Amino acid sequence: MHDNSFIEINREAFESNWQFLKQHFGKKVLISSVVKGNAYGHGIKPFVTMALESGVTHFSVFDCNEARQVNEVVKNRAEIMIMGWIENTSIPWAIENNVSIYVFEKKRLEASIKSAKKLGKKVMLHIEIETGMNRTGFQPKEISSLIKYLKKEQDHFIFQGLCTHYAGAESIANYYRVRNQIAQYSKMYDRFCAEGLTPILRHTACSAAAMMYPETCMDMVRIGIMQYGLWPSPEAFVNYLNVSKKRIDPLRRVISWKSKVMSIRKVTQGQFIGYGNSYMASENMKIAVVPIGYAHGYSRTLSNQGRVLINGYRCQVIGTINMNMMLVDVSEILIIHIGDEVVLIGRQDNLDLSVASFSDFSNLLNYELLTRLSQEIPRIII
Ligand SMILES: *Cc1c(COP(=O)(O)O)cnc(C)c1O
User: Is the CB of 31 under 6 A from ligand 1?
Assistant: First the structure.
């Protein structure tokens, strides 16, 4: 763990987001908290600990490694679902720990059934079907043989879910593609049911689909970005404002990221600042050094672009972002000392630096910025 910055996780903000989501989706829809990518940078262990205490009962991860980390915290007090990667050798672990897994290919399905037979315990499966994203999922032409196989092996698995994923529900440009996926899913669902294979949960929606296409909510929604208080896209936010009566953002950012001033110096007019010559002092300037760089997840694309908050001022990053340091212009701050707080994401006095603002300065998505935050930064729940 390094001590040049820390991340605060705001419990109240999370609880208020979760409350909003529960109210919005209604009692009949189970919400799975998606904590892949180190809980979108919030830190999988502290985040899951907090979410569990706040009443979350279902977590979704990408791979088995993340599932193990979640399992260490929840210990059977919540369900865990692996949506992506698991080695066949880890399937017995999943079965023994009641972790459910996606299957999207015959090979993994067969390995799962084989492990279940060996352990004498049913494997909990989510059958993922291809509906138009063309990533993972059983293809339409595989479905008859899949159904035949599942009927034969019915005693060895629990049909936990029938699922799919939409190819960009956050953007209205994908409207027809998503609509076709919804129709395709519905057709497939009927086909499974007609064969006596009824899944416990129908689940297809991420945050954007759940908000923009309410019919995709079904029995469970898989919510990542919104529980952290961020919208999947500006369109999803605008869409919500248009359909809701209250014209305010119901979400609150959970994360803040803070560091300190490490050093301060004066630079005279005409000097280049930092590596190379991407920034030249146009007048006499005062510069603060902040011990944060791309090694900690502050992207190099924010060179000469980023903003930080110091002593109630919004200050500009100047020059290139280094591996472990950045330089900021503090010329207008009269009183500044080594050790003063630097806010990289979050509030200071009445100024705010949002996660979304990073995508205005660079091509970073909310998602990408957050998941790049180094695992070495301590996370503190407040
Ligand atoms: C990441 C992910 C989600 C959650 O997406 P958000 O946009 O963060 O809500 C849902 N489903 C799958 C399959 C995912 O990989």
Answer: no
What is each CA distance from 126 to 82, 99, 160, in whole angstroms? 9, 11, 5
Q: How far is the CA of 31 from the centre of ligand 1 (A)?
A: 12
Phi then psi for residue 250, to 5 deg, are: -80, -10
Tell me if 125 sits within 8 A of 99, measured CB to CB: no
Distance CA 224, CA 226 (A): 6
Length of the chain: 382
pLDDT at residue 91 greater than cutoff 70: yes
Phi, psi of 236 (to 5 degrees): -65, -35
Q: What is the pLDDT of residues 6-37, one digit of tens each?
A: 999 999 999 999 999 999 999 999 999 999 99
Q: pTM for this one?
A: 0.95
Measure the CA–CA gap between 300 and 306, rounded to whole angstroms: 10
CB burial of residue 238 (10 Å; 0-12, 13-18, 19+): exposed
Mutate to test the pocket of ligand 1, among 42, 60, 226, 371 (most ligand atoms within 8 A of CB): 60
Distance 326 CA to ligand 1 centre (A): 32
Ligand 1 atom index nearest CA of 224: 8
42 lines ligand 1 (CB under 6 A): no
CA atoms within 13 A on the CB side of 192: 26
Mention every residue, 6+ apart, whose C-beta is less than 8 A from residue 224: 34, 35, 36, 40, 206, 207, 367
pLDDT beyond 70 at 361: no
Name the nearest CA neighbour of 224 among 29, 50, 58, 63.
58
161 lines ligand 1 (CB under 6 A): no
Nearest C-alpha neighbor of 46 from the set 36, 57, 34, 38: 38
- What values do phi and psi take at 373, rounded to 5? -60, 125
- Identity at 59, one-letter amino acid code: F
Gap from CA of 167 to ligand 1 centroid (Å): 11
Whose tokens are 């009566």? That residue is: 245
Q: For residue 209, what are its two tokens?
A: 């689909």
User: Residue 373 above 70 pLDDT?
Assistant: yes
User: Which residue, by CA, sits nearest to atom 6 of ligand 1?
Assistant: 224
Please tell me if the CB atom of residue 222 comes closer than 6 angstroms to any atom of ligand 1: yes
Helix, strand or coil for residue 226? helix
